[in-house]
Amino acid sequence: MTAATRRLPMIEVLRGVLGDAGVIFDGASMARYLTDWSGDHKGRALAILRPASTAEVRDAVKICGQSGLTIVPQGGNTGLVAASMSTDADHTAVISLERMNRIRQLDAENFTIRVDAGCTLQQVKDACEVADLLFPLALGAQGSCQIGGNVATNAGGVNVLCYGMMRDIILGLEVVMPDGELWNGFSGLRKDNRGYDLKQLFIGSEGTLGIITGVELKLFPKPSKVETVYVGVASFEDAMRLFRDTRRACSDLLTAFEVIGEECVSLARLVHPELAVPIAAPVHVLMEASCSGAIDLRRLLENVLAEAMEDGLVTGAFLAESVAQARCFWAIREGLVEGQARRGYHVRTDLSVPLSGVPALIERARGIVASKYPGWTSIAYGHAGDGNVHFNVLPPQDMGEPAARAIGVSIETDLYGLVTTAGGSISAEHGIGRSRKDVFWSLLPPIHKRMLKAVKSAFDPDGLMNPGCLFPEEKELA
Amino acid sequence: MTAATRRLPMIEVLRGVLGDAGVIFDGASMARYLTDWSGDHKGRALAILRPASTAEVRDAVKICGQSGLTIVPQGGNTGLVAASMSTDADHTAVISLERMNRIRQLDAENFTIRVDAGCTLQQVKDACEVADLLFPLALGAQGSCQIGGNVATNAGGVNVLCYGMMRDIILGLEVVMPDGELWNGFSGLRKDNRGYDLKQLFIGSEGTLGIITGVELKLFPKPSKVETVYVGVASFEDAMRLFRDTRRACSDLLTAFEVIGEECVSLARLVHPELAVPIAAPVHVLMEASCSGAIDLRRLLENVLAEAMEDGLVTGAFLAESVAQARCFWAIREGLVEGQARRGYHVRTDLSVPLSGVPALIERARGIVASKYPGWTSIAYGHAGDGNVHFNVLPPQDMGEPAARAIGVSIETDLYGLVTTAGGSISAEHGIGRSRKDVFWSLLPPIHKRMLKAVKSAFDPDGLMNPGCLFPEEKELA
């Protein structure tokens, strides 16, 4: 009996519970769930399950458990570390949350919203906007990433500066545990000190502890004014000084502070050839400030910029005169990401260090690339106000992909070594997933390894949830 | 051989490691560590250990483990639920962090500070202020509570509205685990997605998973302007409407929004007989807004108040003209707490509900007291902007304490039942400790109990840390 024949009865059981639309097991239809955004990974699975309700998720998990199947939970499949990439065609089912996409309840008085985990981030943001409220998480992938995946990866993005990571804007979760039991961690409460805050464990757990089926989020008054500024500075040191001064002068109304090395501009031009880049300077800074009341935000920023010019900190500054101009400024930041994707394979990192360490990190990383990897191009940009730098490295244009990938591994190792020495993180926002688990575990002290394993064993003792993600496979576990 | 004789050799071992100042075991000197702030509890312990460094904490924990002693970690002993109250004179040592009170490192560029867990909250706040920075946690007990205890209890206070609970302003922890191993969870990073965020487990763990020895905190620019407003409104409904409108109009620069039922004013007068209370209204609201830049905060608030007066939402409003007047406004809020303590034993709660549920909670709680407990006085005040109400009940002045305590238990049960029905929490900030563990466990669904126990077992499999706190004693565990 082949694996394909063996699995047929199980598929029938799953179909009986989830309906025809709830079970996909032919190769062509499964492909979409087994190819990741970057194209770097191709996965395998026995079937894709698409439950339409929390009850169906519970049923699916129980059936998988009874059938000896492990489970890979999947949101919008936009992650960058292959955390939702199933690799086993015989014993693993992907559970996609995409059919669970209801806004359950928006409570404008409580500044909260409760949604299905399969809602896209954009859908949640839109629902809030209608009620004159803001859900602040903002990511490039927001049209397709799902809110449950944002929780499971503790998503970041451009507005962390003011509103925090996903962890900071979650009030409650609903989770189906590996045994199919439902944990209801909803409360709508801003303050609740009843014992361990269990929801924290699922935030950033990358599907290794349970399946998030519902999410309750903190909302904010929708800003009535947004001001966007594009400035040039002489160095990353000056960018960080500007951040410190501006943060204070704007009373934490700063919602974004992005740095862009000037080398990134040509990447943005790959996407928008006509792009008007208002300044020429070694480092560009894109700032955004927002408020919801009668604050004269524009004058506040004019003063900040005037002072920074006077101090010689800023070499050129443009305060957007219109929404259209603000969009042009953001097109530079967004375009460079797309432009770099067009260049094909490249080394992609999301390093973080203490704020004071940002300039040295970039300088040293550039030095390593320049001296050890001739022909490769360093690209530095990111959420400098959070100490988070995307330091990426593009291969020479004439290098074939296999050769580039081989060298890329070595570059990555050098960059991870550098950030670790600087007391920083190899993963500020993208996570560990499958791509980074080896380097992650190789850098951990023994007690931290024991603690991670203790948590995993406490919630998923049989290792049913997302095997191979975040943790080494059992046979690899020391 | 008596217990006292049996324990002598162990005391000598501990003295050898911690020095004479590090071990207290005579009854008179131990009393201070075994009496809680409220005077409600008297504890017992074999000894009080006072390690002066993280290394000494590790040694003490290891010796306790080898000697079969359990451990109660203790900070400033200002908690309200007996979480640091040892109750066993034969097998338990209290480990006080009071000698570990160094500011380790303030990094103004990174907006962070790293401190010993035994620093008082005030000491940390003062160290930040010198550097023109703010550590925002603000509690009545800040002169004596310790920062490690603030972490272990996830402390709240009056500034949660703007800055969050303790959980939200912690960047890293250093913890001695029950086996004496050291977990270094410091990083100084604002963004770090390397696997489970283990520090979250220790925040609010009430000493049941390990001993917090070091804390790394997020800092903020010190506000350069603070405006304080005292207003009268007709009802708690109107207070909550005012909150919604003001939050938006002030662009989340609101740092406090406290409600005070008019019945509380006479309690404040017990402490400050000369107190000038600027308004007469069923509900008083004390608001504070802060900013660090050139925002015209005063005009912002004047506009907010003018609009609220026009709408008939506010019946009287005073914007403090001076720091002295602002202090007078706060003296009402702080005095009522002290005044109520002077009345001796009373039912003390810290309930939370969704913001929209605050008025109904107070109205129903008052109804229960009025109808079932004649002669008792309801007191309602609290952090309404967080949905957190201190609904306390004072016994009739002529009732003896034993009788009052007996009835108090029944009132507490009624209030806990009420808040649970409303989907709220029996403990918004004070925690569970020993005082509330029975009611806490009686209200938990089975899966939540299993998850809490799984976490406890994962980190403290032998139950060495703070037995009797948060969890039922082993014999009671179902």
From TrEMBL, chains A, B:
Looking at the keywords, is Nucleotidyltransferase present?
Answer: no
Keyword vocabulary terms for this entry: FAD, Flavoprotein
Which SUPFAM superfamilies does the record cross-reference, listed alphabetically?
FAD-binding/transporter-associated domain-like (SSF56176), FAD-linked oxidases, C-terminal domain (SSF55103)
Regarding protein family, the annotation reads: Belongs to the FAD-binding oxidoreductase/transferase type 4 family.
In terms of superkingdom, the source organism counts as Bacteria
Q: Which residues form the FAD-binding PCMH-type domain?
A: 41-222
What name does this protein carry?
Actin interacting protein
- Organism listed in the record: Mesorhizobium alhagi CCNWXJ12-2
Which Gene3D superfamilies does the record associate with it? 3.30.465.10, 3.30.70.2190, 3.30.70.2740, Uridine Diphospho-n-acetylenolpyruvylglucosamine Reductase, domain 2, Vanillyl-alcohol Oxidase, Chain A, domain 4
One GO process term, biological-process aspect: respiratory electron transport chain
What Gene Ontology molecular function terms does this protein carry? catalytic activity; FAD binding
Q: Name one Pfam family in it.
A: FAD-oxidase_C
